[in-house]
Amino acid sequence: MDPLILASEECDIAREVVCVPANVLDLFEFNSVPIFIGLGAVIIALVMYFALRKPKLVPGKFQASVESLISLVSDSIARDVIGPEGVKYVPYLLSLFFFIWVGNLMELVPGINFPFTSRMAIPLTLALLTWVIFVVEGIRKQGLHFFLDLIWPPGVPVALKPLVGLIEFVSTLIVRPFSLTVRLFANLVAGHVMLALLLGSAGFFLLGVLGGDISVLRGSIGAAWFVVGVAIFMFEVLVGFLQAYIFTLLSAVYIESSLHPQH
Hints:
two-stranded parallel sheet; single chain; 263 residues
């Protein structure tokens, strides 16, 4: 039986051992995240520029695709969720959607294979920004009474107000930004790890076959892992879009709840 993985700091290449770092957290260390964030911003700017610099009355496929995404956010999210007031939040929601989507798709780019949204600090920063808008807009719209309505919704019996107030305070003002963060972070980390393990394992087995090991078992495992990895790859294309859409949608829902607490 060939050894596959050895939790060791030294690799025995002759025995075809794949080593695991002593500290598993090293797998998630990446010092080029700011570079990829900047690259993502440049990509978004270029896409918007070339798609919309000379809009045609009868748009081509590229312009139509970008305009449909803009319409998805501006109409289906901003206006439908927030209402007429949602127009002024369109720039923020559009930026949020495209930034997260491009960041997610970097997981699938050869040579990068790293979604910067899988770093906890990125989705946490975006979630806190949404939370700040939620609080600031609530105060601007309702004054300090916003917090009272938030903690003690109208119609709650007096006897239940302490319990309801505690639950609402924790769930709305503390848990909400972290739940928004973990939803994006966990999905991207899970997909990133699955792709790395499946395609990495497939490469390990198939390279062994190319290197002269004609074991049927090795070749079959490598081929199977590769097929599953490709399926996960295609699935991650959809997941990257859905996670960007859900994060943006929930941000709009939170903003709407601060503007229209009665709902």
